Amino acid sequence: MKKIILVVTGLLVVVACILEMALPIKALFDPGNLKELTYYFNSKDRTVSVLYGNDKAFSILNDKKHVAQSGAIFKLVTSIDDQSALGLDLVSKSKLHDIETITMEASINSKLIVKYQSTKKIAEEVSKKEFITKRIAFITSLKSNLNQ
Questions:
Q1: For the segment 7-24, what is each residue's pLDDT rounded down to a tens digit?
Q2: Which residue, of 13, 49, 52, 139, is most buried by count of CB atoms within 10 Å of its CB?
Q3: Number of other CB atoms surrounding residue 78 within 10 Å
Q4: What domain of life does the native source organism fall in (predicted)?
């Protein structure tokens, strides 16, 4: 029983730290009318990302097949932590690292056009088309862990 209590307590602490680390993004970025859909922490890169989107983006994330919809807007906002360890002054020690935007629009011939933009420059040695395809697949396959 003690082990179960310790495990549950540990999980709660980890979740609380991740939620606290998402706070700098909210201070550094105004999502406008987009809603927070999910978030994640990359310990290797020391980044925290929050995925924002509209109602159509939310329905794509919650659809098991992730069927794209015209009018969907995704924004993945990533901040990087400049501290050597988790600290208390996260807002002043964090900075925006990248804002990636995906929009889905219907074309004249009813095909879906998916557009990708990033504030970060894509390295020259990386195939831009391949990189963008992988980023779109990654972002649109995230699972929403927040209630709307």
A1: 445 454 444 444 444 455
A2: 52
A3: 21
A4: Bacteria
pLDDT in tens, the chain (148 residues): 666 655 445 454 444 444 444 455 666 788 899 999 988 888 888 888 889 999 999 988 887 777 788 899 999 998 887 654 444 444 445 677 889 999 999 877 878 888 998 888 776 656 788 888 888 888 888 877 655 5
- Fill in the amino acid letter for 142: L
DSSP 52-84: EE-HHHHHHHHSTT----TT-EEEEEEEEE-SS
* Residue 18: CA count within 13 A, CB half-sphere: 15
Structure-block tokens of residue 75: 């924004």
Q: What is the pTM of this model?
A: 0.71
Please report, as a single letter, which amino acid is at residue 45.
D
d(CA 19, CA 39): 8
CA distances from 16 to 20, 23, 69, 93, 125 (A): 6, 11, 33, 18, 38
